[in-house]
Amino acid sequence: MSIEVNIEKFRAESPMADFLRMERMPHIWCPGCGIGTVVNSFAEAVKKSGIDMDKLAVISGIGCTGRVAGYVNFDSIHTTHGRAIPVATGLKLANPDLKVVVVSGDGDLTGIGGNHFIHAARRNMDIMVICVNNFTYGMTGGQVTPTTPQTANASTTPYGNYEYPFSLPFLADACGATYVARWTSLHARNITKSIREALNHKGFSFIEVIAPCTTLYQRRNRLGDGLDALEYYKEDAGVEKDVDTRDVGIDFQGDIAMGRFVQREKPTYYEAVNERYANVLGDDYQLYGMSKPEREEKAKREAEERAKVQALMEDEEAQMMAEDMGVDEEGL
Amino acid sequence: MRKTAADPKGVLEGSHFLDGDHAIAEGALAAGCRFFAGYPITPSTETAERFAERCPAAGGLFIQMEDEIASIAALIGGAWGGQKVMTVTSGPGLSLMMENLGLAVMTETPMVIADVQRAGPSTGLPTMPAQQDMMQIRWGSHGDYRIIALCPDSPQECFDLTVEAFNLSETYRVPVFIMADETVGHMHEKVVIPPAGDIEVVQRNWYEGPKKDYRPYQFTGKDVAPMVKAGDGYRFHITGLTHDERGYPHLTVDQNEKVVTHLIEKIDSNADNIIRLDESEVEGADVVVVSYGITSRIVSRAVQLAREAGIKTGSMRLITIWPFAEKRIEELAGKVKAIVVPEINYGQMVREVERSVAGKCRVVSVPHCGGAVHDPDVILDAIMEASK
User: Chain A residues with CB inside 8 Å of B82's CB?
Assistant: First the structure.
């Protein structure tokens, strides 16, 4: 059986046409894959946030999720394996007016790129990192990653995984991230909300999205297709409030704690640089030609803007709850 | 290509007593570099330290990254964020940079990488000089590509060539290396920094045209496409994958041929404009010594002694290492008895000399394992032997 897809019609009618490079469709992702949901939620969040799309840049590493940068209609860089975060760091520091978002996979960000991940979090670098965690290296054929739960089968652990996995929210929290959330690809609305919050957050924000790799992880572990994965998320994923990130590890097909685990205020790397230099070198210090009063004025303006957006988001949420759209406090 | 005077904020005009590492940092600031990402490694660290100290006054930013991989990666982001960017390193760090050197080459990202060479392999002799990375920069990243490399033999040249490295990097959208060594890096000499108005700086070739028509690449094999910076509404895409003019992945053999040919030809076809040599008494010589960097200064003594001994000896100093001066060497080969090539490695650039000479004269290698400069007498002996 073959399914006829009218690409031209899709390109013309997609509500995401402004956010995607439609000339690059169709994409490479498999049916049932969770990456598309994240991209959709990201587009939705950008749309709702009303931020200037020209001022947003997306950086990816290598792998299936690494292809996101190529499909989104923003300034975008598809980097080498694991190196999205340092490229994003350079971009953000060279051009501090940008919002810089890294979208990549678990292997890319926390395996080969793990060192960059922990240091960007430590510095509270003002970037957002979205990790699509499917517990596997998809592009290379289903190998074990630093997040693969123990006993899960991977092509390089054919007798089941025996390594201890990372719990990414705990890792991010421990390293100094100032916004940490986790959802599954079933919870598209929550992902959208989280991305909006992170877009409005100042500092290193980390959003983990548990997502199925149907072609490799699901099949190799006899877990069914994409729909079966979503059934599992529906059954075993739940919002945990005020939970300690030390307690949110994921066992093989076990419970998935979701929610916004961390949200705190701390000066960003860039703010710390400016503050330090200004304190020591005095009012004459200028970074990229910006004087102290200009910097302070800009910081004030941005803080007001963030507060406004925060209030707007809270209003919207209250309205949705009032209209009984099946949305509770956590947006579920 | 737009040339202007240097931004006075970065120019420390005057006569100074500087080591080569510090002179590199001053050259970068004079050239308009305002973003530096680096990781400490002997004997290059002083460049990073100097930049960190001086950049706030010039309105720039220094970040010490978690490793050399991150340092060069940050430069790619920094360059597309609109800044002139640089890093500094030495052998082991350079090895780590090879991965993203490839990304910089493939995405045609301008950047300057100073390599203050020390003796290897591996940790080797961290505090002692060598010239052992000459081939690593040329071949160390996978795939076929070209880079530009300049080789200073004094702190003054560390300054001058760093400015030139930035200019070449902007002109050809390619990573440019400063191939210093521990001795040049750590020796103090007089460095004259001219007034800003006398320093010629190539500004980035910014695209000016309708936003929707912007293409980050053109595969002409001669010129490079203008650049834009993130945040200006061009919505550019760049990738390490084989790509088309829009920067979109285009994974075919035909496209790869276009891209790779362009990366090679944009340097090779402009080699005559890039290559700089410093020749002395080469015409009519029986023996010519080809050298570069710190070794050239030892060579000047050996050549003096050889001339005193009555041997017609010429000297050619390679200021530009890559692209290699193959045409000039080939020309010389037909006129001299022998070419002598001393270098602080076990024979790297001598292979390029042999390739260019193609059997037309004798080529004598004078290798050194690294850790010190040659004794002039060793080079003199080689000249005497070659002149027979």
Answer: 94-95
Please count the CA atoms within 13 angstroms of the CA of A242 that sit on its side-chain side: 0
- Summarised one tens digit per residue, pLDDT across range A41-96 is 999 999 999 999 999 999 999 999 999 999 999 999 999 999 999 999 999 999 99
Distance of alpha carbon B60 from alpha carbon A246, whole angstroms: 40
Give per-residue pLDDT as tens, A156-206: 999 999 999 999 999 999 999 999 999 999 999 999 999 999 999 999 999
Partner-chain residue, chosen from B100, B230, B248, that has the shortest CB–CB distance to A80: B100
What topology is assigned to B279-387 in CATH?
Rossmann fold (3.40.50)
Rounded Cα distance between A28 and B367, Å, is 52
Instruction: Pull the structure tokens for residue B42.
Output: 């002997």
Contacts of residue B231 in chain A, CB cutoff 8 Å? 54-55, 57, 75, 95, 97-98
Q: Which pair of structure tokens corresponds to residue B18?
A: 């500087």
pLDDT tens figures, A241-283: 999 999 999 999 999 999 999 999 999 999 999 999 999 998 7
**The two structure tokens encoding residue B231:** 């945040």
Name the region of A152 (left: φ>0; alpha: ψ -120 to 50; beta: rest).
beta
Per the prediction, chain B carries an average pLDDT of 97
| Cβ-defined contact of B34 to A59 (cutoff 8 Å) | no
ipTM of the complex in this document: 0.97
DSSP for A128-194, written as a single string: EEEEEE-SEETTTTSEE-TTPPTT--BTTBTT---SPPP-HHHHHHHHT-SEEEEEETT-HHHHHHH
Find which of B36, B39, B51, B61 to mutate to test the A interface (most A CBs within 10 Å of its CB).
Answer: B61
CA-to-CA dists, residue B340 to B283, B288, B296, angstroms: 16, 6, 12
Give every strand in the sheet of B313-318, ordered side by side.
Answer: B277-280, B313-318, B287-291, B338-342, B362-366
Residue-level pLDDT at A329: 52
Q: Any CB–CB contact under 8 A between B60 and chain A?
A: yes
Q: Is the minimum CB–CB distance between B70 and chain A shorter than 8 Å?
A: yes
Does residue A327 have a pLDDT over 60? no
Contact list in B for residue A97 (CB cut-off 8 A) is 231
- Residue B29's identity, in one-letter code, is L
Q: Where in chain B are the domains?
A: 2-203, 279-387
B214 interaction partners in chain A (CB closer than 8 Å): none
- Using a CB–CB cut-off of 8 Å, the residues of A that contact B are 21, 24, 53-55, 57, 59, 69-70, 73-80, 83, 85-95, 97-98, 115-116, 119, 269, 273, 277, 281, 284-289
B85 neighbourhood in chain A, CB within 8 Å: 90, 94
Angle at CA of residue B239, ends B235 and B244, nearest 5°: 80
What's the CATH number for B2-203?
3.40.50.970
| Integer Cα distance of B290 and B292 in angstroms | 7
Q: Do B237 and A97 touch (CB under 8 A)?
A: no
* Topology agreement, domain B2-203 and domain B279-387: yes
Query: What is the per-residue pLDDT across B239-252, written as a single tens digit (0 to 9) for each?
Result: 999 999 999 999 99
Interchain pair B103, A83: CB under 8 A: yes
